[in-house]
Design a protein that fits this description.
The complex is a heterodimer of chains A (about 350) and B (about 325).
Chain A lengths: L8 E12 L2 E13 L4 E5 L6 H8 L8 E11 L5 E3 L5 H7 L4 E4 L3 H4 L6 H12 L4 H14 L5 H4 L9 H13 L5 E5 L7 H18 L2 E6 L2 H7 L2 E6 L2 E7 H6 L4 H9 L5 H5 L44 E4 L2 E3 L4 H5 L1
Parallel strand pairs in A: 3-8, 3-9, 6-7, 7-8
Antiparallel strand pairs in A: 1-2, 1-4, 4-5, 9-10, 10-12, 11-12
Chain B lengths: L3 E14 L8 E14 L3 E5 L6 H8 L7 E6 L2 E2 L5 H8 L2 E4 L13 H11 L5 H14 L16 H13 L5 E5 L7 H18 L2 E5 L3 H7 L2 E6 L2 E7 H6 L4 H9 L49 E2 L5 E2 L15
Parallel strand pairs in B: 3-8, 3-9, 6-7, 7-8
Antiparallel strand pairs in B: 1-2, 1-4, 4-5, 9-10, 10-12, 11-12
Classes of the chains: A alpha/beta (about 350), B alpha/beta (about 325).
GO cellular component, one term (chain A): plasma membrane
GO molecular function (chain A): ATP binding; ATP hydrolysis activity
Protein name (chain A): Peptide ABC transporter ATP-binding protein
Chain lengths: ~350, ~325
């Protein structure tokens, strides 16, 4: 029997560091994040925010010798109901979890598919790696998965190479491969960023449908707030390697309480039709400056050099994630004024 | 509408492919009969999926790719009729800004050298004037004058795009093709560059052909919008009219597909099935009909002409009169 009350994945105080020529760079500085069964959590951030390093850490795909998880725990509830700490698992145990209990899809399907192997064979291989299937059964499973991700004529399409497919079709193949072993958790790192909006919508609708049917938890990494609004149940906003705000999706968009989240929402080009009709020039409230350089973070709050609400206390210490309302927290000492 | 600066008539770019000694080749129709104008000081947006021909159009207008037929006129100059040797002089009038500024800047040249080279090639100013002009250009795009001595790798993505813009501005162009200039930038930085483009447009009276795939950016920046599909114009009109009242099913589908950053909005929408067909073997009649939810038999028979509607907006769809595509945002 599985325990439904504990989250599927419970990340506590995750720290991931990389060694560079100029010293140790801390890319993830103590991230807490939970994902429940059947829940979609969006991890949002710009380049250098640490969102992709967080997802790679969950998969334990940080390359040895380059970087390492140096702190925290990642408690994952396995199919058998056991709670394991992914940080402590030896590599062979991780191999049994990765691609099996935790599936993943990436931004550029062409670089994650083998160009010399037919797509059906690649999905079959993923299935056989973790399930006790004959070649024939595995191929049948591959065709079944291609049908599940709505690829027309799946028996014939299983027999083609990735380059014979469009970008959207390849992303469907990636999803089919990730789901071939019925994972409880799917990590999707910018899965629609390289796609046209029309194809992006198809993929998002597909993921929503599959989640309804299969009930997997999804960690959805993206920089696109429109996509967040479409898919997420809960959102965590990252900046400079830390979560700066987290809330249920409607609460976050309605009451952003960290200046960075507010700035991101204000930066979106939304046309004020009344202003335009009266001949006014439209301007965006852009966030000044550049995204934080992880090699050289500022003192105190990571966002303080770009922040409109900054006061001297902001430079003294990194603020804690403070409760705003239940389930909504913001890492800002002035959240009450930002919240508005 | 402002007096037209750029006039494009019936522009076609066809590529012969697969032709060899033993094989009859086929023709890839990247652009097929595209006509439009860009007024002085006007910003015209170009949208469409990948493979729609928007980048090809931007380059064909500048003759960075050779049009197969058709005419491009900038001011009183016929761009398409100029012999290649005379193109250089025209390049000071028309410039381009690329998506990836890092790939389009020489990493071994300082920013000052990059900008100076543009001035030198077009014989603008004396050596001393040029240093002054380089500093002015950098300030104009929001960078310190001291940036001239630094190299591209020392800048962030947004700053590099500012350098790319400064380089395009160096030769005092009247017309700029901006090919996805903000697509590779972070959201917070994208807003800075959009504001910069608004400033430059106002201060310099620039005309822009702005190529993009983010429909909210296009709506924000552009006066008029052209919707391209498989190398053909599906619809064009003022941004206000086209977004509020799309008349082509493809435009409606594009608008519907754009994710809205508001979790409370749930819409009725057209989801397009499948992908863009191959431009080597485009569908007969209307090229969009294979993905169009409103297609009827007649759509396969005739290529729909670009008709002008009462609102002044133009659409290539034989059913545009009977369809109600106004956006019912719930």
């Amino acid at each position: 029997m599985t325990d439904q009350t504990t989250p599927l994945l419970d990340i506590r105080g995750l720290v991931t560091e990389f060694s560079t020529e100029t010293g140790v760079v801390r890319a993830v500085k103590g991230v807490d994040l939970t994902i429940g069964q059947g829940e979609t959590v969006a991890l949002v951030g710009e380049s250098g925010s640490g969102k992709s390093v967080t997802s790679l850490s969950v998969m334990r795909l940080i390359q040895k010798g380059v970087g390492a998880i140096t702190g925290g725990e990642m408690l994952f509830r396995t199919r058998s109901g056991q709670i394991v700490d992914l940080v402590q698992q030896p590599e062979n145990a991780m191999r049994a979890i990765r691609g099996n209990e935790i599936g993943m899809i990436f931004q550029e399907p062409m670089t994650s598919l083998n160009p010399t192997q037919k797509v059906g064979a690649q999905i079959a291989e993923a299935a056989r790696l973790h399930q006790n299937l004959t070649r024939k059964q595995a191929w049948a499973r591959a065709v079944e998965m291609l049908a599940l991700v709505e690829i027309p004529d799946p028996a014939r399409r299983a027999d083609v190479y990735p380059h014979q497919m469009s970008g959207g079709m390849r992303q469907r193949v990636m999803i089919a491969m990730a789901l071939a072993c019925n994972p409880a958790l799917l990590i999707a790192d910018e899965p629609t960023t390289a796609l046209d909006v029309t194809v992006q919508l198809q993929i998002l609708e597909l993921m929503r449908r599959l989640q309804r049917e299969i009930g997997m938890g999804i960690l959805f990494i993206t920089h696109n707030l429109g996509v967040v609004a479409e898919v997420a149940d809960r959102v965590a906003v990252m900046y400079g390697g830390r979560i700066v705000e987290t809330a249920p999706v409607r609460e976050l968009f309605a009451h952003p309480s960290h200046p960075y989240t507010r700035g991101l929402l204000d930066s979106l080009p939304v046309v004020d039709h009344a202003a335009r009709a009266s001949g006014q020039e439209l301007r965006l409230r852009a966030i000044p400056g550049s995204v934080v350089d992880p090699r050289n973070p500022p003192q105190g709050c990571d966002f303080n050099p770009r922040c409109a609400w900054v006061i001297p206390e902001c430079r003294a210490a990194v603020p804690a994630l403070l409760p705003v309302v239940p389930e909504h927290r913001a890492r800002c000492i002035r959240w009450n004024e930002v919240h508005g | 509408m402002a007096e037209p600066l750029l006039v494009v008539e019936d522009l076609e770019v066809h590529y012969p492919i697969g032709k060899s000694l033993f094989k009859e080749g086929v023709t890839l129709r990247a652009l097929d009969g595209v006509s439009f104008t860009v007024g002085k000081g006007e910003v015209v947006g170009l949208v469409g999926e990948s493979g729609s021909g928007k980048t090809t159009l931007g380059r064909a207008v500048l003759r960075l790719v050779e049009p197969t037929s058709g005419r491009v006129q900038l001011g009183d100059k016929d761009v398409t009729a100029l012999p290649p040797a005379d193109l250089k002089a025209l390049r000071s009038k028309m410039q381009i800004i690329f998506q990836d500024p890092y790939a389009s800047l020489n990493p071994r040249m300082s920013v000052g050298q990059t900008l100076g080279e543009a001035l030198m090639l077009h014989k603008i100013g004396t050596r001393k004037d040029r240093d002054q002009r380089i500093g002015d250009l950098l300030e104009q795009v929001g960078l310190p004058r001291s940036a001239a001595a630094r190299f591209p790798h020392e800048f962030s993505g947004g700053q590099r795009q500012r350098i790319g813009i400064a380089r395009a501005l160096a030769v005092n162009p009247e017309f700029i093709v901006a090919d996805e200039p903000v697509s590779a930038l972070d959201v917070s930085i994208q807003a800075q560059i959009i504001n910069l483009l608004q400033d430059l447009r106002r201060e310099l009276g620039l005309s822009l052909l702005f190529i993009g795939h983010d429909l909210s950016v296009i709506e924000f920046l552009c006066d008029r919008v052209i919707v391209l599909y498989l190398g053909r114009v599906m619809e064009m009109g003022t941004a206000a009219e086209l977004y509020a009242n799309p008349r082509h099913p493809y435009t409606r589908a594009l608008l519907d597909a754009a994710p809205v950053p508001d979790p409370t909005v749930r819409r009725d929408r057209i989801t397009l099935k499948g992908d863009l067909p191959s431009p080597v073997n485009p569908p007969s009649g209307c090229v969009f009909r294979t993905r169009c939810p409103y297609a009827i038999d007649a759509c396969a028979e005739v290529v729909p002409p670009l008709e002008t509607l009462e609102s002044g907006h133009r659409v290539a769809c034989i059913r545009s009169h009977e369809l109600n595509l106004a956006n019912p945002i719930a």
